[in-house]
Amino acid sequence: MTDKLILPSTSEEQSNVSTTGYEYSIGPKQSLPNEANSPYIPSKLYSESLVYKKQQVALSSMAFLFKEMISQIYNNSKSSSEFESKLLNYGSSIGLRLLELLNIRASVPSNTYSRSSTFLSSNASNPSSSNNVNSISNTSNPNSTNLNDISNATNVGINSSTNINDKNYESSESLASLVSHMRCRDLKIIDILQFMHGTVWTYLFGSPSNDLVKSSERENEYMIVDHEHMLTQFISNNNSCDYFVCGIIQGFLTKADFPCTVTPHSNNENGIDGGVIYLIKFDKQVLERENLRYGS
Amino acid sequence: MATSEKLSASQSRSLKITGEEIWKNKTEKINAELFTMTYGAIVSQLCTDFQRDYNKVNDQLFSMGYNIGVRLIEDFLARTALPRCEDMIRTSEVITKCAFKIFLNITPQVTNWSPSNDAFSLILLENPLSEFVELPMDATKQLWYSNILCGVLRGALEMVQLDCDVHFVSDILRNEPQTEIRIKLNKVLKDEIPIGED
Amino acid sequence: MAIYSFWIFDKHCNCIFNREWTLAADTNSGTMNSKQNEETAKLLYGMIYSLRSITQKLSKGSNTNDVRSISTGKYRVHTYCTASGLWLVLLTDFKQQSYSQVLQYIYSHIYVKYVSHNLLSPQDFADNESEMRGQGIRKITNKKFLQSLEAFLVPMINN
């Protein structure tokens, strides 16, 4: 029994690497050993700019792909909880990639450079998505405090973004060269949630989420209200498929060191489709840390 | 090059305008990077599920594409209200200038026509599915990363009675010079007729 | 204007949806996906099918010579055919010349949205060979489709 505890830490790792994926030790520029003579074409990937190109595809392409993904997962799941956790994993694998990318893109000063790379569309300040909606959801969630009016540094860049002309865009332009100051890492719950509500949501769905609300009953619970629920609007009456977006949120926040679980709830009031509420429950440690750091 | 000779310039231009007009004014859009990453999540999960048997992954992607294609064609026809194409030359133009434009906002080039005009190649200069992608080494020989596109084309064409073979010839992801999809018409299917009418 | 009935045929020559409004005064008197209408559906399909065959022969194979409407002494039949082989058929009175926009709307905003985009709805309503060539029995029963179609067409029933 105790023998098993003493394992050379490297041996298993190595066999793993050789069967799955890249040979990181060799590096991406190497060709396979047996085709060393074939002409080398470097992957464009590493020289490509991360400046946001604002490229779009049709929503219906995304909807078709999303549905096929759903049915693929559905067919391979034995229970609805298995389905939901699988879908959540798909989403979280996307969310955790967004943290660094959006952070650096959001660091580009929007007013200093004509071809600004902020990815927020110029109509991000759509009034219907912030002010009007707040009053509605305030009435529907009497137990909650509204957080939208808390001013925050993350939102400064949003509304002043300039429209870039796609044709003027140069692919060689390096994202890092546009950034003089990285924006500070979000350390407070409220800051990271504002970033999620504004920047991430605008990146994903074209406008900030409709509302960001703190539960007044439990202090580790927050809610993002999304009336549009763009991806699941073609899917009726079931929140299961919203676990994908939950995964994106959860992956993003967990990667940012705010471990949490996210679940979807429908926001139907009086039979009117009010969209989806994403309920974010932070782990205890997050609140403990927050109290230690900022508690009075 | 080949297409403008084969189809009158004005017909070709009008399809281009149709496609661009629909993309611009009648299409709800979403961030292409979300689309790219979602597809990436699907492919990488399939690679895990099939234990890196890339032929199986190719087949699965193709069949997912087929399922999409047979439905997507209705969406396409509803947007464009185009009638059936009289030949493959027009089909190729409709696919590139309208379908790819409307759904993915790209316009592949048509080339390599067979002598009998029943097979051609699409060259994808950009591919929203494979942005940010580098294949792992063990996949470069077998995996057709964007194989879902072949399935979509196959399914959609079958629904307008064109029985076609669609497959990848090359992909820049495999360090090949270009991304090429081959489409070959097997036969034009006959419309069903009700029992008693024949 | 007034509409009397609405039909959808798929590429297997099957009637996959029918809705009939019989009494102008009472919208509840109509039928939906009724078995009694099967014979009518077959006759209607046969009539349009024959006319289409003739017009296509007359125009020497070009598929642009489509049947758009057929008039009789009492009513008009409007047809809308898609390249995928779907037929939408609407029976109306004489007051309005063309319903092609109405049918186009039903196709693009109701059928595509609630049938094609709906994962749970079948894409092909014939399950096997024996349900093809006009022998099919399946109908569109999807609630959202029925609701939005009803909401769209009911205002046109009378007047």
Automatic annotation (TrEMBL), chain A:
Pfam families: TRAPP (PF04051)
Gene Ontology BP terms: endoplasmic reticulum to Golgi vesicle-mediated transport
Region (Disordered), start-end ranges: 119-152
Cell location: Endoplasmic reticulum; Golgi apparatus
UniProt-recorded Gene Ontology molecular function terms: guanyl-nucleotide exchange factor activity
GO cellular component: endoplasmic reticulum; TRAPPI protein complex; TRAPPII protein complex; TRAPPIII protein complex
Regions of compositional bias (Low complexity) in chain numbering: 119-148
Coarse class of the protein's main subcellular location: endoplasmic reticulum
Alphabetized InterPro entries for the sequence: NO_sig/Golgi_transp_ligand-bd, TRAPP-I_su5, TRAPP_component
Keyword Secreted attached: no
Family: Belongs to the TRAPP small subunits family. BET3 subfamily.
Protein name per its UniProtKB record: Trafficking protein particle complex subunit
Species for this entry: Vanderwaltozyma polyspora (strain ATCC 22028 / DSM 70294 / BCRC 21397 / CBS 2163 / NBRC 10782 / NRRL Y-8283 / UCD 57-17) (Kluyveromyces polysporus)
UniProtKB/TrEMBL annotation, chain B:
One of the protein's GO biological processes: intra-Golgi vesicle-mediated transport
Database matches in InterPro entries: Bet3 (IPR016721), NO_sig/Golgi_transp_ligand-bd (IPR024096), TRAPP_component (IPR007194)
Intracellular or extracellular location(s): Endoplasmic reticulum; Golgi apparatus, cis-Golgi network
Residue spans crossing the bilayer: none
Domain of life of the organism encoding this protein: Eukaryota
UniProt KW Ion transport keyword: no
Keyword Endoplasmic reticulum recorded: yes
Main localization of the protein described in the UniProt heading: endoplasmic reticulum
A single MF term (Gene Ontology): guanyl-nucleotide exchange factor activity
Keyword annotations from UniProtKB, A to Z: Endoplasmic reticulum, ER-Golgi transport, Golgi apparatus, Transport
Gene3D superfamilies hit by this protein: Trafficking protein particle complex subunit 3
Any Pfam family hit: TRAPP
Any one GO cellular component localisation term in the record: TRAPPIII protein complex
UniProt family annotation: Belongs to the TRAPP small subunits family. BET3 subfamily.
Cross-referenced PANTHER family: TRAFFICKING PROTEIN PARTICLE COMPLEX SUBUNIT 3 (PTHR13048)
Protein name in the entry: Trafficking protein particle complex subunit BET3
Organism of provenance: Vanderwaltozyma polyspora (strain ATCC 22028 / DSM 70294 / BCRC 21397 / CBS 2163 / NBRC 10782 / NRRL Y-8283 / UCD 57-17)
UniProtKB/TrEMBL annotation, chain C:
SMART domains (UniProt xref): Sybindin
GO cellular component: endoplasmic reticulum; TRAPPI protein complex; TRAPPII protein complex; TRAPPIII protein complex
Pfam families documented for this protein: Sybindin
UniProt keywords, alphabetically: Endoplasmic reticulum, ER-Golgi transport, Golgi apparatus, Transport
Subcellular location: Endoplasmic reticulum; Golgi apparatus, cis-Golgi network
Entry's Gene Ontology BP terms: endoplasmic reticulum to Golgi vesicle-mediated transport
PANTHER family, per database record: TRAFFICKING PROTEIN PARTICLE COMPLEX SUBUNIT (PTHR23249), TRAFFICKING PROTEIN PARTICLE COMPLEX SUBUNIT 1 (PTHR23249:SF16)
Similarity-based family: Belongs to the TRAPP small subunits family. BET5 subfamily.
Protein's UniProt name: Trafficking protein particle complex subunit
Species lineage: Eukaryota, Fungi, Dikarya, Ascomycota, Saccharomycotina
